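Task card 7
Instruction: Convert sequence to structure tokens.
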Amino acid sequence: MPGVEPQLESHLSMAMNTGLTESGLKQAFDLIEKNIGRQQAEAARKSLAKVVAARPEKQPR
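Output:
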């Protein structure tokens, strides 16, 4: 659905805060592409890229 990208980005950020990984989310988007459609998967990938770019880098301990 067009126009829901900000909400999706919020959900993706919360998912990553609770332990989901970028790799795992990308795998889910591959399934979306295969079973639902490429356009929807690409929209999700773009939102994930924004979320990852905005996240602070982890500092080595």
